[in-house]
What we know:
Layout: E1 2-8, H1 14-28, E2 34-41, E3 51-57, H2 60-67, H3 70-76, E4 83-89
Antiparallel strand pairs: 1-3, 1-4, 2-3
Helix pairs in contact: 1-3
Amino acid sequence: MKLIHCFEIPQGREDEFLAGWHKLTAVLQEADGYYGTQLFRQTGNVGTFAFINSAEWRDEDAWRRAVTSDAFRAELAPMVDFKGTPGLYEMVYEEVLPKP
């Protein structure tokens, strides 16, 4: 199961967001059913979201247990100014081409 989490970050607060995101990720690394993450930063002035997080989870229950844990909530509290829009997805198609 893939978590896609899009973030709107006030200009000039990117470093603050990144520091908090790394703390949250450290908590998740201990969670059962968490398989890793990627964070993408917007380039140029196209799009709404400054950062998009993609994380792999065993299933929805594992994700819900992790994000409702006391440890996760403690690290999340300083991040309330950063608007996030999460969603859980399953892959329905993948195309991978060889790179030249």
